[in-house]
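Hi, here's the filled form for the chain we discussed.

Project: internal
Contact: R.S.
Residues: 116
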Amino acid sequence: MVHSQEIEKIARTVHEALRAWAAANGQVPYPAWRRAPKWMKDSSIESVRYVLENPKAQASAQHDQWMAQKIRDGWRFGEVKDADKKTHPLLIPYEQLPEIERKKDALLNATVLALA
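And the returned structure, exactly as it came back:
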């Protein structure tokens, strides 16, 4: 079992990897971990826990977990990501995600498993 402190270290690393991926692909940049809002950090930590508990799950399952987490927390689909309104354009089935987003889910899974 991985301890909470280790999970947070992995989440921080995953966050920074995804931040670099977004920047490299011309997406809206994420804030650095130290400046990320609590909800964003909590989301990363929950995603890391999911991958650790489900190491053989496909990237599509990770996306489903992320969507369930967002919906549970009051988010809904919206054309623009807006933390204040809790809207997100990626609250769609995995099959409808652009390829770049599917690769981002795969990157998340691979990074967690490499660091666990």
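Let me know if anything looks off before we file it.
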